[in-house]
Amino acid sequence: MKTKLLIAGLGASMTALLVAMPAGAQVGASGAAAAQASTMPVAASVSAFYDTHQAQSLWFQNGSAKPAVSQLIGVLQRAAFDGFAAGPQLAAQVQAAAAQAASKNPADISAAEKTLSSAWVQYVQAIRQPTAGMVYVFPVLQPQGTRADQILLTAAAAPSLEQHIASVSNVNSVYAQIRDAAWADAQSSGNLTPDPRLIANLDRLRSIPANGKFIVVDSGTQMLTMFENGRPYDSMKIVVGKPEYPTPMIASVMYYIVYNPYWNAPDHLVRKIAQNYLSMGDKYLKSRGYQVMKDWTASSGVVPSDQVDWKAVASGKVQIRIRQKPQDDNSMGELKFPFPNNLDIFLHDTPHKEYFAKANRNLSNGCVRLEDARRFGRWLLGTQPASPGTDAEIQVQLPRGVPVYLTYTTAQVQNGKIAYFSDPYHLDPAGGGAAKARGR
């Protein structure tokens, strides 16, 4: 019953998150989750689990090892390729404990049971660490279920322990494809030391869900993929941040789309606009639909251009907000796809379709431009996107919130092998392995 309650509680949290955006949502860690986290060593937590729940054996039946024991050993032997360096050592301990339990001595079986459960808990906790450097706007989007009792109760409730181990260790379909290709190559070559770049890439992928409908925005491959039931459904090219303005890693939820969006110019472009204004005057602003705004609030008023110290703006001594009205050359295009975050990052349409013919699409100031915004909108809405009117910034709610994960991968599987690509954001460890990184 406790297992069902734990799982149901998490499901209810995620469902509530997807149905409607919580008011005042902020980036940050969950205090409740932190309070729940066990501070006990793994061995003590596992012993407490068996004492408290009087659980039946997970790993042995009628004194004999279940098939899941051999499966666990294989998972741990491979675990260095999950970034869990202690895995092979734990695999040896599990093998020794299982061999001792073959004596059918109840004390040996009991000791082996706890050894195997401790190894499984340590492995699961390792692969469910939050991605380093990722901003989790909602704590529930972090990898969940890292307490020893959660891990073991869920395993005990699984209809098939073997299927459960496979599902948990695969993390998600993208992660499993890259990890398994690297492991297979290592076994065939005899080099069982994982490339540090592989570990870095898998860390950046571990937050992606295994199931459901969600979006993955990959600034490394410069592709957006739409997932349904945990599997790729559609994809498109994207333009992402330049190395000096990298697109950050964010986990959030998209709740609505915006028709006829304004475009707010970033500070470095505001200075260029000011320089052009000093040369051409008001006709430059009017021809491009630029407006000077009093502040950054949604209800901000427009400031007459003759009240602006344009020389100070051009030199960077004064900062102002300039927005562009919806029109054909608006940098947002027809559609914007915002999601809660404190970094002012969103997805959007673009009038510059020529960018998608380029091999290197690190061309934006951090936000993400879409190759086909209308196709993406149709997938989100379930119907062809059509603006309800001509007003600026018309918001239309999605039928259900859709999680969005902005990540960064430089490793892909090609012909069954791992290929490493260029690292414009310099997030990979230096020195890699034998595989040579190459351009896109």
From TrEMBL:
Per UniProt, the keywords (alphabetical) are: Cell shape, Cell wall biogenesis/degradation, Peptidoglycan synthesis, Signal, Transferase
**InterPro entries found in the cross-reference section:** LD-transpeptidase_YkuD-like, LD_TPept_cat_dom, LD_TPept_scaffold_dom, Transpep_catalytic_dom
| Matches recorded under SUPFAM superfamilies | L,D-transpeptidase catalytic domain-like
List membrane-spanning regions.
none
One Pfam family, please name it. Answer: Scaffold
Query: Hey, what's the signal peptide range on this chain?
Result: 1-25
- Which pathway does the UniProt entry assign to this protein? Cell wall biogenesis; peptidoglycan biosynthesis
Q: Which residues form a coiled coil?
A: none
CDD domains from the entry? Answer: YkuD_like
The L,D-TPase catalytic domain sits at: 213-395
Q: Which domain of life is it from?
A: Bacteria
Which residues constitute the catalytic centre? Answer: H348, C367
The record's similarity note reads: Belongs to the YkuD family.
Q: What is this protein called?
A: L,D-transpeptidase family protein
Specify the species. Answer: Sphingomonas hankyongi
